[in-house]
Amino acid sequence: MTISNALAERELLIRLKEGDHDAFTMLYGTHHDTLYLYAYRLVDDEDLAADFVQEAFVYIWEKRASLYIESSFIAYLFRTVKHKFLNLKAHYKVRADFADNFQHYLDQGTYVVDRAMEEKELFQQLQDELARLPQKMAKIFRLRQQNISDTEIAEQLGISEKTVKNLMSQTLKKLGHTFKRLVLFLFA
């Protein structure tokens, strides 16, 4: 930019501060294409680059009365577009982080719901299997689930502790084929 161009631009900026539409139009016409190319290099998207340029000039017009430009006007415009780009990039990062966290939450929620449903189904299957067992075996199993010791079970049922252990062993074998995973979970 030559000295005469720099002086002319300074004059246009003074007129812009006073609200001169023609000065704004001249500044826009002078710098639009350069600013658009800069924005396009940042975002690699024609529409987004055009939006950045438009927003930069709207900002200039809205803040015209309080504008303080130390360096060249084009450098000021470049900084304005760069800030818009950085804000957009930060916004996308926040959205991406939110989406990741939300997806993790959904995945966890699905796991919890799936696990609860699976446990309910397994519990119902266990109840069905216990109903098929001889009454004494089922009773010993249910008492064992309540953390009652073999000695106490033997006393309650009026049988020996060895009989309780044998019946429990037979029960676990019968249930083990169907509920190996559940039995390990319950009695591990």
From TrEMBL:
**By its UniProt entry, which InterPro entries does this protein fall under?**
RNA_pol_sigma-70-like (IPR039425), RNA_pol_sigma-70_dom (IPR014284), RNA_pol_sigma70_bacteroid (IPR014327), RNA_pol_sigma70_r2 (IPR007627), RNA_pol_sigma70_r4_t2 (IPR013249), RNA_pol_sigma_r2 (IPR013325), RNA_pol_sigma_r3/r4-like (IPR013324), WH-like_DNA-bd_sf (IPR036388)
UniProt KW keywords:
Sigma factor, Transcription, Transcription regulation
- Which Pfam families does this UniProt record tie to the protein? Sigma70_r2, Sigma70_r4_2
Please list the residue ranges annotated as the RNA polymerase sigma factor 70 region 4 type domain. 124-175
Q: Which SUPFAM superfamilies match?
A: Sigma2 domain of RNA polymerase sigma factors, Sigma3 and sigma4 domains of RNA polymerase sigma factors
What the entry lists under Gene3D superfamilies is as follows:
1.10.1740.10, Winged helix-like DNA-binding domain superfamily/Winged helix DNA-binding domain (1.10.10.10)
Instruction: Report whether Transcription shows up as a keyword of the record.
Output: yes
GO MF annotations, alphabetized: DNA binding; sigma factor activity
Which superkingdom, per the lineage? Bacteria
RNA polymerase sigma-70 region domain sequence ranges = 27-88
Which terms does the UniProt entry file under GO BP? DNA-templated transcription initiation
| Protein family membership | Belongs to the sigma-70 factor family. ECF subfamily.
What's this protein's name? RNA polymerase sigma-70 factor (ECF subfamily)
